[in-house]
């Protein structure tokens, strides 16, 4: 009998510490960049303004990340629900500022480490494999304010100390790791992953490419550390992937599509997977006004990148993108940190993200055929407004339909010959949205009673998709 997925396939779900843990100032935790991001639909506009300097103003804004969904206190309840869904793995992140509150300390915060001891052990109790993102949009705020974010080479040392601390502590229990979440997102919005806003250099691509170089070096150092600790450990990179189409067959648009693919989808992975900068780097630098001679790079950096590439490619896939360089009046679309023109062949979510399951099959083939490394879909999902019925049930058939179509696309890619490790849909439990700080933009199989203003019981309840996904995992994706 031919099966769609291997028996080792890692089914699960994904979250990030800053979006669900809460307890932002407890047990020695320091502030993170996420803690300084206001909630609401104008979040990105506020952070992207000229005068934003990471100052927290509680009289003017609300900060939903401070409370999250109180996972810090309720993680045992949440992990039990994941286990009930038959999770094989659970992707989560370690809050950097919970381990090194300011980011530049020499010794870690033991209370923070003990929390993750408990979280990891709770997963293992149910046979759930932890998949840990070392840095997921939550660098210590002090590193952004005092050091200027990742454009400062000193951050390599601070990250290496953080990575060494958690890898040494948890490597015997945790096999799967990722170094940076959606590292390529800095192309459009460097505040999240690089700690760069306009007031400390985000408007200058010289800083963004310097920050990337520093992150590439830090990532390779983490891979080196991990491999020295455990021979079978697997450390991946993690990117946003947006399958990109030309809007038509005009060669101008075809070339623009090629360039966008190189810059956004492939640049970071070319370095982290192949271990060297790609051939088009000089052209990209010239386009964005980057002076290579001014980049702080050492000869040993390139040796490190070559010697310690990542073991697999983790990526998020929510939508595809269409390119039209010829028609300035073309309707634009919005999406996960990137725009593009509207694709007339696709429907869109309530937040305007174009839904394209076939684009996931294309993404998997493009990535695997380019790199021939195992792939791991570590984010995919539908953000939607869920209505609670009078009897407390939630009929999220739209979410089931979205995920079903993407799982079918995954199966087609596996049949194409793609080596796919696993699938962890985003926000397996409702949490605070990264793009807007809202609770109303829900992704989970588990509903959390909390609104955008922080009002609610925080009680957990199962949506219709909960039992559906439980059956998907039970049948290893045969029944969707």
UniProtKB/TrEMBL annotation:
The alphabetized UniProt keywords are:
Glycosidase, Hydrolase
Which InterPro entries does this one have? Answer: GH, GH_1_N_CS, Glyco_hydro_1, Glyco_hydro_1_AS
Q: Which domain of life is it from?
A: Bacteria
Kindly name one Pfam family recorded for this protein.
Answer: Glyco_hydro_1
Q: Where is the active site?
A: 379 (nucleophile)
Give this protein's Gene Ontology molecular function annotations: hydrolase activity
Family named by the database record: Belongs to the glycosyl hydrolase 1 family.
This protein's name:
Glycoside hydrolase family 1 protein
Per the UniProt record, the lineage of the source organism begins with: Bacteria, Bacillati, Bacillota, Bacilli, Lactobacillales
């Amino acid at each position: 009998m031919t099966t769609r997925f291997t028996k080792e396939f890692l089914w699960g779900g994904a979250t990030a510490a800053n979006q669900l843990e809460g307890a932002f100032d407890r047990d020695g935790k320091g502030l993170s960049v996420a803690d300084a991001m206001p909630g609401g639909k104008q979040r990105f506009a506020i952070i992207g303004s000229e005068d934003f300097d990471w100052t927290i103003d509680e009289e003017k804004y609300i900060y939903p990340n401070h409370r999250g969904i109180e996972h810090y206190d309720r993680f045992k309840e949440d992990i039990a629900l994941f286990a009930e869904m038959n999770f094989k793995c659970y992707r989560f992140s370690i809050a950097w500022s919970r381990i090194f509150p300011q980011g530049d300390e020499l010794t870690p915060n033991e209370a923070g480490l003990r929390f993750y001891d408990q979280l990891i052990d709770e997963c293992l109790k149910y046979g759930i494999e932890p998949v840990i993102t070392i840095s997921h949009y939550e660098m210590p705020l002090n590193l952004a304010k005092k050091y200027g974010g990742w454009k400062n080479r000193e951050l390599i040392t601070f990250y290496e100390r953080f990575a060494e601390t958690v890898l040494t502590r948890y490597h015997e229990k945790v096999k799967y790791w990722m170094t940076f979440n959606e590292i390529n997102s800095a192309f459009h919005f460097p505040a999240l992953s690089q700690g760069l806003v306009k007031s400390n250099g985000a408007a200058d691509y010289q800083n963004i490419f310097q920050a990337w170089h520093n992150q590439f070096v830090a990532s390779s150092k983490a891979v080196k550390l991990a491999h020295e600790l455990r021979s079978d450990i697997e450390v991946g990179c993690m990117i946003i992937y947006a399958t990109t189409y030309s809007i038509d067959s005009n060669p101008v648009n075809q070339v623009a599509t090629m360039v966008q693919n190189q810059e956004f989808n492939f640049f970071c992975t070319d370095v982290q997977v192949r271990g060297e900068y790609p051939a088009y780097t000089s052209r990209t630098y010239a386009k964005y006004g980057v002076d290579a001679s001014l980049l702080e790079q050492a000869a040993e950096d390139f040796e490190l990148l070559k010697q310690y590439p990542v073991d697999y490619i983790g990526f998020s896939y929510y939508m595809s993108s269409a390119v039209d360089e010829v028609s300035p009046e073309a309707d634009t679309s919005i999406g996960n940190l990137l725009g593009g023109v509207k694709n007339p062949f696709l429907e869109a979510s309530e937040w305007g993200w174009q839904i394209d399951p076939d684009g996931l099959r294309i993404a998997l083939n493009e990535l695997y055929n380019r790199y021939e490394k195992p792939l791991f879909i570590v984010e995919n999902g539908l953000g939607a407004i869920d209505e609670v019925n009078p009897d407390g049930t939630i009929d999220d058939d739209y979410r089931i339909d979205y995920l079903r179509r993407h799982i079918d696309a995954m199966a087609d890619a596996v049949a194409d010959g793609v080596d796919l490790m696993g699938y962890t849909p985003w926000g397996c439990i409702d949490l605070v949205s990264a793009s807007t700080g809202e609770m109303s933009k829900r992704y989970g199989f588990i509903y959390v009673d909390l609104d955008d203003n922080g009002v609610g019981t925080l009680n957990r309840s199962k949506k219709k998709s909960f039992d559906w996904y439980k059956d998907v995992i039970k049948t290893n994706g045969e029944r969707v």
